[in-house]
Design brief:
Blueprint (H helix, E strand, L loop, with lengths): L1 E9 L5 H13 L5 E4 L17 H10 L3 E5 L26 H17 L6 E3 L7 H9 L4 E2 L8 E3 L2 E3 L6 H4 L6 E6 L6 H13 L5 H4 L5 E2 L2 H24 L11
């Protein structure tokens, strides 16, 4: 299976040491990822370092290097307890909100991107949670691609093209065909995580995200969405149980 990389929670005040270390690793193996940039971060959990004044210049630079930029919500604040259409988590910045509220957030994020010269039609939902209203509003603001869902190839649903993430990373490493995305939360990486990803980059068939977006996309049928919903809900339950079992240990990046 070909493996693409996406980096979540890219903000002016992220852990810049870990980001730089992971970028160097990706550059060494010519891995071109998709990154989720939060337009106006207000989530204190993502505030690790003093904000960098050259943040947006850096975003433009790596976009010019071939990295794909996605708008990762607006403020990255969870305002509902809805898992939406892809319930990997029971919280959301968007799912469950009225259309007017969702539209205001999407428009605000788009305006911030445009102010800094960033153009994209990719959206990354915080906590992976969105609903049908989110999809409607996104299309109204010229977002037509999302990094989410499960599967072995891109698919089209309700006028949006989805680029799936991995359901289980370990099984993807032995799969023979298809393509998927490994989700990386750089702020949470441990030394062992860096070693694990270096081994993946060195031994696997890595797929640059600029090539991933040109893979043919199939039409997703309602049955496929139904199956995907329950896979996400089941994984949420399994992760919650695993975290409860090792609560005192700390797990770094989730490589499931």
């Amino acid at each position: 299976m070909k493996i693409a990389i996406r980096l979540d929670d890219i903000t002016p005040d992220m852990d810049w040491e870990k980001f730089g270390r992971f970028k160097n690793l990706m550059d060494r193996y010519r891995v071109k990822p998709l990154i989720g940039v939060v337009p106006d971060n207000r989530d204190p959990n993502l505030s690790i370092c003093p904000p960098r004044e050259d943040f947006w210049d850096n975003v433009k630079k790596i976009q010019e290097e071939g990295w794909i930029i996605a708008m990762h919500g607006c403020h990255h604040l969870y305002t509902t307890t809805s898992g939406g259409m892809f319930p990997l988590n029971a919280l959301s910045e968007f799912a469950g909100l009225p259309e007017e509220n969702q539209g205001r957030l999407i428009a605000e994020g788009r305006d911030i991107f445009e102010k800094h010269g960033i153009e994209t039609d990719f959206f990354m939902a915080p906590a992976h949670s969105y609903d049908r209203t989110t999809l409607k509003v996104l299309k109204e603001h010229n977002f037509f691609r999302m990094t989410d869902g499960f599967g072995r190839r891109p698919y089209v649903y309700d006028g949006m093209t989805f680029y799936p993430i991995s359901f289980n990373k370990a099984s993807c490493l032995t799969a023979k065909d298809g393509a998927t995305t490994f989700v990386v939360h750089v702020n949470k990486l441990s030394d062992s995580d860096f070693q694990w990803y270096e081994n993946v980059f060195a031994t696997q068939d890595m797929l640059p995200y600029p090539e991933y977006i040109y893979l043919p996309a199939a039409k997703q049928r309602p049955a496929g969405r139904f199956r995907e919903y329950w896979m996400a809900a089941g994984k949420r339950a399994a992760v919650a149980a695993r975290m409860a079992a090792r609560q005192s240990k700390g797990s770094g990046d989730d490589r499931a």
